[in-house]
Amino acid sequence: MSLPPRVLTVAGSDSGGGAGIQADLKTMLALGVHGMSVITAVTAQNSLGVQGAWPLPAHVVRAQFRSVVDDIGVQAVKTGMLASAELVEEVAGLLAGLSVPVVVDPVGISKHGDALLAASALDAVRTKLLPVATVATPNLDEVAWLTGVRVRSEADLRPAAEAVLAYGPRWVLVKGGHLDGDAVDLLTDGTTEHRLRAPRHDNRHTHGTGCTLASAIASGLAHGQPVPQAVASAKTYVTGAIAAGYPLGSGIGPVHHGWNL
After folding, report:
1. Name one GO molecular function term (predicted).
2. Residues 198, 5, 139, 163: is their CA dihedral positive or negative?
3. What is the CATH number of the domain that holds 156?
4. Is 175 labeled as catalytic in the residue annotation?
5. In a domain? residue 175
6. What pTM did the predictor assign?
7. Which residue in the list 208, 220, 245, 253 is annotated as catalytic?
8. Full domain range(s) for residue 120
9. Residue 253 domain-assigned?
10. Which of 55, 97, 101, 252 would suit a FRET pair with 70, their CA atoms being 20 to 30 Å apart?
């Protein structure tokens, strides 16, 4: 029996199941890889927002990572919520010792506007985490937080991407989902540029979109796809998941991770 590629997510737990570790593992299953997890924080979270968040100690995160990597091995890694400067530095140090693709989703704030990363961690994300990224996947708010560049139109995507690339990732995918019109993202390594467009679906149930996209990219990379192909495939997958998103609770429901099954 052939083994599926193995992908590790290093992120926070979403008790409501729409984002974080739970979204990552659902995405990985849907895309044919074996998902594994290092939990960095536990949240009390539902369709209305984040009611509480508790980061795990750095030594607990390190123990989970070593347990998985040293025995099972990985073909790609995805990072999400890292909560604190200490955890950002710990995870960045662990990733620096790997020779596999790393997708960094620089999570700073939730869909509902709740902080998921301490303000003191900004410098660590810039100087420690982004340099180990094969692909960084910031949305427009995260670009502004990281670089000070504000994207107000598609024309602003290129300078935004260049500003993020200055911190060291090999590729950056600036997600333009908050712009008007079609959902357009810009993928570039500073030399090659790809614009990915998709129709915008009139569906408010989009919780977990960023986690899902980053995990889908990591899954494609684990399958051996080059970065542009992995990102394009992930864009197609997440667009379908958004279209099939469903109401859950009394707030914003999740995207449908199993829409393609």
Report:
1. kinase activity
2. negative
3. 3.40.1190.20
4. yes
5. yes
6. 0.96
7. 208
8. 6-243
9. no
10. 55
As a whole number of angstroms, the distance between CA 93 and CA 157 comes to 30
How many domains would you assign to the chain? 1
The reply to whether 209 belongs to the active site is yes
Catalytic residue among 18, 176, 177, 210: 210
* Catalytic residue selected from 43, 79, 137, 209: 209
Query: Is residue 78, in this structure, part of any structural domain at all?
Result: yes
pLDDT digits (tens, 9 = 90+) for 13-35: 999 999 999 999 999 999 999 99
Q: Phi and psi for 18 in degrees, rounded to 5?
A: -95, -25
Where would I find the beta strands (DSSP E) of the chain? 6-14, 34-46, 49-55, 76-79, 102-104, 135-136, 171-175, 183-188, 193-198
Identify the active-site residue in 9, 43, 137, 206: 206
- Are 232 and 194 a contacting pair, CB within 8 Å? yes
- Is 156 domain-assigned? yes
Is 236 among the catalytic positions?
no
